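Onboarding guide, step 5: your first structure request.
Type a short instruction followed by the sequence, for example:

Predict the 3D structure of this protein.
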Amino acid sequence: MSAFDLKKFRSLFPLLEQKVFGKEIVYFDNGATTQKPDCVINKEKEYYEKYNANVHRAAHQLSANATSAFEASRITVQKFIHAKFSHEVIWTKGTTESINLVAQSWGGDNLLAGDEIVLSRTEHHANIVPWQIMAERTGAVIKILQLDESGRIDGKLLDSIITDKTKIVCCTHISNVIGKINPIERIIKRAKLVGAKTLIDGAQAISHVPVDVQQLDCDFYVFSAHKMYGPTGVGVLYGKTELLEQMPVYQTGGEMIKKVSFSGTTFNKLPFKFEAGTPNIAGIIAFSSAIEFINEYKINQKFDHKNQLTDYCYEQLASLKEIQFVVQGKPDIPLFSFLLNKHHHQDVSSSLDVSGIAVRVGHHCAMPLMEYLNISGCIRISLAPYNTFEEVDYFINTLKHILQNKDKQLSSSIDTKSYDSLVTSEEILSTFSKAKSWDAKHREIMLLGKTLKRMPKDLRSNETLILGCESAAWLSISKSPEGIFSFEADSDAKIIRGLLVIVLAALNNQTAEKITQINIDEYFLKLGLIQHLSPSRGNGLLAIVNKIRHSVL
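The system replies with structure tokens like these:
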């Protein structure tokens, strides 16, 4: 391949030309999902336009064309991960379903009381919860692989955790929070020594490092198309033939059967016995184009631009004294998780969003890891080869702006020197009607958040905790002899505190009847906020309102 042309490479991704709030988008959330190149988008469009038909079943040319392209994608994946046979590639909806399939099918057929399932502290919930369910169902026990000082699975402790009682070891190739390659070769070798099976979660690794499942000698390897420039709703379960053949079916229905009668059913051969129902045909066919794209640009190899971008971003982040990385040391892929001292991660993300920068914040579906790190969540940026040094500079400068806290010099038209119940919904509606842009509305929310009096620590308890908020939030309720309800609320995130002020302005000092009659959705629609609330933040608001309504009733 010729020298990497970044400008030409970026032009292959239509979404990168979009603007957010009038600003060019800076997409730093590639660990969640990557953007899609033209070739993938066009391939999916081509299927629907030229040979849309079901696969394997119909006796006509359109179906033959679709089936040919569908099975060609399976072979493309087989070659990409160096599987021995194409039937070892099972199509699923994603990494999560792939793990559930193994847990339910292999786990349900092989785990007994007292057997041990080994996970690691860095696992995504998708590689924890299915195994917890199987442990509860079978009486198996979960053991945890520990981490070393760098945040990788500690290879020195493998022998004490992976023992003769271990039946399966399930661990991530690269953590979606830490971004460092785990010693999976040593883990697999140790597991084999004691006769245990291995499942490797490759969701974060598959687009960054070459994967050879035969060389690794893992029993199962799972990943998703949408994290490697492919469509959503497509995943892969690789499994060794002998294991897949022994495993009972996971779901039943069309395609995965040979014969059905009321006297009994016989199931199809591999890979079809695990692929019940009509699959995501268009997505699977387009996935082949994504793999060809990765191969063409050698994206899963180390090349100068990606290496330099990783080094540069790490150096720039490390230069900010307010940055606290969740673990020390440069990651192996361009994925960085950190905290900004004295700034809640939700507040940072909302300010970055206003600036057109897409990042991920929260617990990243890794709550046990957050607990181990003694944090409630963090900021994560994850870069791809289409990202630029200029985008990193813009991001760093935006962080510096947040750190300077220039909102101190701003004022609101609401008298917010000391928030109390006298701040009314009418005042808030008037103020937000004058704030035409999301930037201005966001500023007003943050200013309101500064004014909400913090609840005493003894009131911030499990009893007052509002379940369903994206950051910790608490609500205390009192009722007067006249039946008037008043509320005291708090959150660690300033933006949530601002939203709490807005909610309480409408609901505070009202009767139960009045509270249940207020239409909060209509209220937020009038404020012009509905379209700017993320689903998680919107669900958090709903959780707050529901707790109030449930309590007063």
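Each response can be followed by summary notes, for example: The chain has three domains: 6-30+302-404, 40-296, 407-552.
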